[in-house]
Amino acid sequence: MERFLKKTAVPGSSNAAAHRTLNASTTEVEVGQKQLPCVSLSMRSTRANIDNTKKLLDIAKLFDVKGEVQQIEFSSPLLSGDYRLIEVNPKLADRIESGERLVFRGELDDNPVLCTQQETYQVKEAETSNTLLVLPAVHFANEVGNGDHFLTARKVVAMHSQYVELRKLDVISLNRLKELLRENEIDWDETENPEQEGKSYTLDDLLDVVQMSEEQLMNALHYLPVIHQHGGYVSYI
């Protein structure tokens, strides 16, 4: 579990992605009594890159490629250690984009699980022979437009060949939850008004160590012989 603990993500390069257009306006400088157009080195470089890109597309016989051409650049330094890649299905991806929180749960010596509000996923580390690039922004084929070619610089902030696979768990073990709640069980036969003097566990306490989603935990507490007393949960016999 320790190697899966969340790291604080460090933002990528502070340089914003440069947006360069082929038909950029030229500046004018005064020479004697005349004004002459002056094309900057950056414009010349951009124009050269556009020309080279067009030649490359022609060689590849990609004559129908129009609009934005994205130029991939690597940040220095790369921040690969600040990112973990997780493969998710489209449904889960939509929920993440809508703001739903994901939480790794378990003790340091556990195999970690990943939990949404309602579900629990087994976590497995996988490796690919391809190199996966992390970019803050990139446009797909249906987003680049159909106009004249122009260059957009895209910064790669991290790269990985490993990622995390998820498998949804349909059956959740309750063993650890039962063990925790039985540490200070109440015996109803000892008194008419039983009071629990030892440690009780709050919902947050249980979520820290029990490997299930919050909704699954609440359902388990509803069906187990458990009472809520003094802000915590205890089992009874």
TrEMBL record:
GO terms for biological process: DNA replication; maintenance of mitotic sister chromatid cohesion. InterPro entries: Dcc1. It comes from the Eukaryota. Pfam families: Dcc1. The keyword rRNA-binding does not apply. Keywords: DNA replication. GO terms for cellular component: chromatin; chromosome, centromeric region; Ctf18 RFC-like complex. Belongs to the DCC1 family. This is Sister chromatid cohesion protein DCC1. It comes from Ascaris suum.
